[in-house]
Amino acid sequence: MAASAGGGAVRALSQKEQDIQMMLAADVHLGTKNCDFQMERYVFKRRTDGIYIINLGKTWDKLQLAARVIVAIENPQDIIVQSARPYGQRAVLKFAQYTGAHAIAGRHTPDWGAAPASVPTGDGWDQTVAPVPVDGTVPPVVAPTGWESAAQPTAQGWE
Fold it and tell me: Residues of 3-24 as b/e, b for ≥16 C-beta within 10 angstroms?
């Protein structure tokens, strides 16, 4: 009886709460001892040992936003994912493997942030891209420079 009551309590959780519970179990909420001023709004609190605890509710909301942006792109080869950090490179490679996106695992060309650039991938894909900030401060989403609210992805690329 107790097992079924516990199972019912878990089922009563919303999908967001269940996903946050899984992120807690995977220690996604544990940050580092360094906190950039741009990340302060995503920090829940700081432990006594100096480790920052990340607000998983805000993390979940950003993941949902990123998922909506990615799903809106018809051709997965128009997506570039990147991580210069060693602990993010495996995730970038796995994401690209499962979605068909292009992965950049490692450092990028320094002039990328300054101006739009062509992305050399070795397979002939040469799309002009520019970083598109999701909320004005974090530029993780990349879209073609022709991106407008009326622009739509096509089989040949963006128009």
Answer: eeeeeeeeeeeeeeeebbeebe
